Amino acid sequence: MCDPLTEAENANFLSRAAFNRRQIGAMGAAGVAMAAMPACAADGAVNMADSNQMTMGEMVNITTPFGTCDAYFVAPRTGKHPAVILWPDVAGLRDAYKQMATRLADLGFAVLAVNPYYRNAKSPILATFAEWRTEEGQAKIKPMRTALTPEAITGDAQIFTAWLDQQGQVDAAKKIASIGYCMGGPF
């Protein structure tokens, strides 16, 4: 999640941490999650220009039996790379998660940041996590969360994995990672 409450903690962590791709793999998903956390402006805005321009990202549409999932796919510009599915927190896919995906791609991964609420609406559902903290934000998200059953998430993960395996930037012979934040953690 990316909000003003975590800005100082993220900056402190990132100032002390410089990981290479092998170290990231050894640390596991928790380490990747922390290393990928973006620094946010006080209003929750993110700067997509932080990437080192070694990656290329775009919004994509993935057809599922339940509708079309909009997602952000980003990977290094050259070569084939291990894939990662990135599940957002309760506020859904937004710029903060596009930046996190880009930072992971900068480390040598092909990353698909998904909109878990695609059955109900295109992203962004909420622009910042702060919107979730309002009554209006919670009322907007609540009915969308009911569609996120274990069966739905498992089916989505299978579809996303198959989609990733077809991408030229993905090394399908490598294992795939799944990283989730807050609500997306169990996914």
List the helices and strands and how they pair.
Layout: H1 7-16, H2 21-27, H3 29-35, E1 55-64, E2 67-76, E3 83-87, H4 95-106, E4 110-114, H5 129-132, H6 135-145, H7 150-165, E5 177-180
Parallel strand pairs: 3-4, 3-5
Antiparallel strand pairs: 1-2, 2-4
Strand content: 15-25%
Q: Structural class, judged by helices and strands? A: alpha/beta
The biggest beta sheet reads: 5 strands, mixed
Helix content: 25-40%
Give the low-pLDDT segments: 20-51
Overall description:
By secondary structure, this protein is of the alpha/beta class. The chain has helices at residues 7-16, 21-27, 29-35, 95-106, 129-132, 135-145, 150-165, and strands at residues 55-64, 67-76, 83-87, 110-114, 177-180. It has a five-stranded mixed sheet with strand order 1-2-4-3-5, sandwiched between helices. A hairpin with a 2-residue loop joins strand 1 (55-64) and strand 2 (67-76). Mean pLDDT is 82; it is low at 20-51.
